[in-house]
């Protein structure tokens, strides 16, 4: 649990298009790393490369190295399905399986891996995961209702419960609050603060206040212009990035001068 990611000289392509160039960074365990930067600078592309979801797009590939506690995730004998289990992902729009029950949603990932789980074992995973996602008290009396019966904020916490059910090492979240109201957003932010005690968390956000509130480290990405690759401009302690960044482009972005 909670492993570190080391990214070196990462280039990411969509066919011939170099979307992200030359990213080198370390993502520390038991902490939250925020990715910020203007639309199109490659934040989603980078986060998807971390658990090998990028390569499911035809023609998509990477160069460079991404290591989880020293293991090259793109090594020739590495199973990408196993990587995606170790490095879970939560998306912008909550995407529970709508007709599946809340209970079945939580263990959906486990069923794929272990079809012969007993009812008692399944119930235990469901309770642990829903408690971990701060959702248990709200749903414990209606576990057999469909996932779609929940509010947007609850659905997003259900997706987080589904992601942590398989006990991953890293949780990736790509703008997890951008479809949520302010109250649900605060609930997710509180939850991220709790989850970081056990997991390595990477969150993409376009909300500066959110990055400042939830993250320990912030990485600022930028691109020189349309058709140019996105690059990591600077990464530092969140406090430093938001008070005294080293690069002028970072300062311009966080003070709202562009983006
Ligand atoms: N599936 C795709 N196929 C081709 N190009 C893509 C695809 N997804 C993203 N891109 C391109 O990669 C670049 C980075 O996009 P993205 O990672 O979505 O940026 P961000 O998340 O920072 O807004 C953009 O130029 C975008 O158009
Ligand atoms: Mg994006």
Please give a structural write-up.
- The longest helix is centred in the middle third of the chain and has 14 residues, at 119-132.
- 36% of the residues lie in helices and 25% in strands.
- It is α/β, with parallel strands linked by helices and 259 residues long.
- It starts with a strand and ends in a 5-residue tail after the last helix.
- Strand 4 and strand 5 form a beta hairpin.
- It has eleven helices and ten strands.
- The chain has helices spanning 43-50, 80-86, 102-106, 108-113, 119-132, 136-139, 152-165, 182-195, 208-214, 238-243, 248-254, and strands at 5-14, 17-27, 32-36, 60-68, 71-72, 87-90, 170-174, 200-204, 217-223, 230-237.
- It binds adenosine-5'-diphosphate and magnesium ion.
- Residues 43-44 line the site of magnesium ion.
- Residues 43-44 line the site of magnesium ion (MG).
- Keywords: ATP-binding, Nucleotide-binding, Translocase, Transport.
Label this structure with key terms.
259 residues; alpha/beta; Rossmann fold; 10 strands; binds magnesium ion
Compile the SSE list and pairings.
Layout lengths: L4 E10 L2 E11 L4 E5 L6 H8 L9 E9 L2 E2 L7 H7 E4 L11 H5 L1 H6 L5 H14 L3 H4 L12 H14 L4 E5 L7 H14 L4 E5 L3 H7 L2 E7 L6 E8 H6 L4 H7 L5
Parallel strand pairs: 3-8, 3-9, 6-7, 7-8
Antiparallel strand pairs: 1-2, 1-4, 4-5, 9-10
Helix pairs in contact: 5-7, 7-8
Keywords: ATP-binding, Nucleotide-binding, Translocase, Transport
Protein name: Phosphate ABC transporter ATP-binding protein
GO molecular function: ATP binding; ATP hydrolysis activity; phosphate transmembrane transporter activity
């Amino acid at each position: 649990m909670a492993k570190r990611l080391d990214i070196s000289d990462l280039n990411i392509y969509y066919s011939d298009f170099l979307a992200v160039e030359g990213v080198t960074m370390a993502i520390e365990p038991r902490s939250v790393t925020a990715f910020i930067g203007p639309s199109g600078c490659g934040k989603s592309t980078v986060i998807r490369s971390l658990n090998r979801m990028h390569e499911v797009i035809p023609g998509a590939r990477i160069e460079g190295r991404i290591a989880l506690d020293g293991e090259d995730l793109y090594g020739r004998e590495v199973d990408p399905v196993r990587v995606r289990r170790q490095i879970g992902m939560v998306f912008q729009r909550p995407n529970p399986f709508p007709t599946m029950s809340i209970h079945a949603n939580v263990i959906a990932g486990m069923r794929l891996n272990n079809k012969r789980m007993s009812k008692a074992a399944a119930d235990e995973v469901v309770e642990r995961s829903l408690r971990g996602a701060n959702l248990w008290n709200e749903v414990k009396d209606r576990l057999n209702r469909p996932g779609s019966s929940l509010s947007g904020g609850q659905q997003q916490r259900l997706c987080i419960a589904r992601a942590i059910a398989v006990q991953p090492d890293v949780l990736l979240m790509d703008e997890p609050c951008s479809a949520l109201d302010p109250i649900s957003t605060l609930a997710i932010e509180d939850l991220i603060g709790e989850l970081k005690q056990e997991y390595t968390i990477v969150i993409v956000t376009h909300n500066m206040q959110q990055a400042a509130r939830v993250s320990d480290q912030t990485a600022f990405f930028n691109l020189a212009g349309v058709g140019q690759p996105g690059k990591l401009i600077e990464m530092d302690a969140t406090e430093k990035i938001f008070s005294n960044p080293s690069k002028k482009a970072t300062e311009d972005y966080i003070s709202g001068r562009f983006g």
